[in-house]
Design brief:
By secondary structure, the protein is of the alpha/beta class. 38% of the residues lie in helices and 27% in strands. The longest helix has 15 residues, at 149-163. Residues 11-88 form the ACT domain.
């Protein structure tokens, strides 16, 4: 080991079985030789500890090595000590990349890493963010920072996720990622399973007819407002009490309650913006304690549906206006908003939001979204926002609501 009286920067890496007292013992050894800390990073994977410490030291480096090696040998730990002539890298990561899968194969992850390398990006750190209902890995990277870099990274990693059964989300790193404060969800096939208008149409015996029009509208093949009026006509004459029956039968998307509960804890303002119907959605919104509801209103006369909607139609443009109104109401700039949806009528809303997430979406929406999520678990949105499963379950545990449903 080289020695010198000059101040040197030294990287010390300790690895071995994790047990209490390793960090304390290492710091005790370092304090005995009078070093200054520059950086410390620790990771534990299945009870195996890797602890890195970057220090500056005066004098004989061999004294440092002897002190650390003796202490760590008593703990059964391996030690590597390297001089670092380049000092400490100060630049922050430019992007966060979240990879989700069930499972994530080594082949798929290699393809992600290879694409980042191809684009000149460097992986600064990797951490696990979830083990349920998906495996989630968060990569903090430094990428070439140009006007086109975000789009290039998303396009390249999007091609990887199209080849492998993984979802890959890309977002700018730094404070902006943690500054989101408003989130809105589409309702049909996003917050809940299925389409409300089809549930209502089933009561009139016209479900197949309405479903075909809905599908075409969600693909962007029909004008949403026109298709809405056409579908609502099929409900003419239904007793209004059907609304309550449908409202009570709604099934939330897996992970929806966890998502809303966690976002509320984090101080998000949560809402729904839907091309569906306020009378059906409002009871659910009240149950979930949402802050904002914008949807269409069915006309009811003498206890029966007239086959018409009243008021302004919440269509593609209306959804974007609703998001903007919600953000303004909460005093939050648009860059701090998130929108989640699945259909072509969500295009303007996701484009306007600071982060637009396409959830099991039609191709027209996937093309414009910031990121896509193709696994059927809404709580994966949390992982994209940098929230870990451990953090979610620790908070749930305090409230006595931790529950893992077996996944086939």
């Amino acid at each position: 080991m080289e020695t010198s009286d000059a101040k040197r920067t030294i990287l010390i890496t300790v690895s071995g079985p994790d047990h209490p007292g390793v960090t304390s013992s290492l710091m005790g050894a370092l304090s005995s030789v009078g070093v200054d800390l520059l950086d410390v990073e620790q990771v534990v994977i299945h009870n195996h500890l890797t602890l890195g410490v970057l220090v500056t030291a005066d004098g004989d480096v061999e004294d440092l090595q002897d002190a650390v090696s003796a202490q760590m040998a008593d703990r059964g730990m391996h030690v590597d000590i390297d001089l670092d002539p380049h000092g400490r890298e100060q630049a922050a990561s430019t992007h966060a990349v979240v990879v989700l899968g069930r499972p994530i194969s080594a082949e798929a992850f290699q393809a992600v890493a290879a694409e980042l390398h191809r684009q000149g990006a460097n992986i600064d750190s990797i951490r696990g963010v979830a083990d349920y209902p998906l495996t989630g890995l968060e990569l903090m990277i430094k990428a070439v920072d140009t006007e086109d870099s975000d789009a290039a990274i998303r396009e390249g990693l999007g091609a990887v996720s199209a080849k492998y059964p993984i979802d890959v989300a890309v977002e700018r790193g730094g404070l902006a990622r943690r500054a989101k404060r408003v989130i809105v969800f589409d309702v049909d096939s996003t917050l809940i399973q299925g389409e409300v208008i089809e549930m209502l149409a089933a009561k009139a015996g016209r479900e197949a007819e309405v479903a075909a029009v809905t599908e075409a509208a969600m693909r962007g093949e029909l004008d949403f407002a026109e298709s809405l009026h056409e579908r609502v006509k099929a409900l003419e004459g239904l007793d209004a009490e059907v609304i309550d029956r449908v409202a009570s039968s709604l099934e939330l998307t897996p992970g929806a309650r966890t998502t809303i509960r966690t976002l509320n804890r984090l101080g998000y303002h949560c809402g729904v913006v839907s091309g569906g119907f306020r009378q059906v959605i409002e009871p659910l919104a009240g149950e979930l304690e949402l802050d904002f509801v914008r949807a269409n209103t069915l006309e009811i006369v003498d206890g029966k549906l007239t086959g018409r909607v009243i008021g302004e139609v919440v269509d593609r443009e209306g959804k974007a206006r609703a998001l903007a109104a919600f953000a303004e109401q909460m005093g939050v700039p648009m860059e701090q908003t998130v929108a989640v949806g699945d259909g072509a009528n969500d295009i303007d809303m996701l484009t306007a939001a600071g982060l637009g997430i396409a959830f099991n979406a039609k191709p027209a929406l996937r093309e414009v979204a910031d990121t896509t999520l193709d696994h059927p678990y809404l709580d994966a949105v949390l992982f994209m926002l940098g929230v870990t499963r451990d953090e979610v379950e620790a908070a749930d545990s305090r409230d006595g609501v931790v529950r893992r449903v077996p996944i086939d």
